[in-house]
Specification:
single chain; 10 helices; mainly alpha; about 350 residues; about 80% helix; membrane; globular
Amino acid sequence: MGRSVGKRNSPRSPPQIARPWPEFLEVGVVPPMNALEILRETVRILRTDPSTFMSILALLICPVSAALLSNTIIDAAVVGAVSRRLVLWVVTSGLPLTHFLKQMCHHLAGTVVSSAFCFPLLLTFLLLARASIVYSVACSYAGKKIVALEFFGTVRRVWRRLVSTYLCVCVSISGCLALFLALLVVVCNAFSGLGYPPEIVVYPALFTVLVFSMVYAHMIIVCNLASVISVLEDVLGPQALVRSVHLIKGQTQAGLLIFLGSTIGMAFVEGLFEHRVKTLSYGDGSSRLWEGPLLVLMYSFVVLADYMMSAVFYFTCRSSSIEVLNGDDHSLEELGKISIELVGAK
């Protein structure tokens, strides 16, 4: 009781780390894992409580996946207008107007317009799905049974933080895309101004795209981890992004592999849906009745696995961060003992 707050014989107070919510303090230390081990851990958690995760998939993820894949609420005229603007920008920047660039402009326009039109679904259904999945994974690690009343109480507490973090993530990604387009225009115009033909301008443009892809992948990893942090820790918005950057140190390779696997899986299902459902390239199209729902289910399962792996990735990053902090604390104590011995020797 009479112990003073700050003692002179301690070189520094132990580092402070963000604490999770009290109901998840029982979560033990999760050992560091690589991407394959995180996938195996995700499968293990899914098998322990399949009914909960399948309910989340059916009620929250499938409606959004159906809207994103089918483009039923998207105006095709808006996509065409944005695509024409992008094609015009490609021509004025000095790039050769090839079929591949036209397809890329159309795909980028469709992605941007789809995200804008589906934003209400992303802000409600997918955010609620992410909160549900993160809560369920945390309960699995804490050895707790998922109770509906406790879950809804947790959602009410974290909803403002989750929405604030998601809006901050959207602003960050939009700013990154805008900066990339501006940089690409500057690079292409600079080489065009030096007199290089469009066939040569393509190469610095491809290099710029490659660099942006690496930066974009890191940003998506940080943003996904920030969304998990906003559910389990009392931080939001830019603070969650900063916390994510500090937490991910030393675990970037696993995060990149998770992002790469999820992106390839989603792109593969999107391509199948475009070829087998939207475009009638074979038969009379009767197979759409079962192929469409099956591909929507496959896409939803990829999203579910991605969210679950992000939650597992958070726990392994947090354990690694705690180990590093404990190691730093022990090093400080050893340095303090050595300094005391040196002073005594004098």
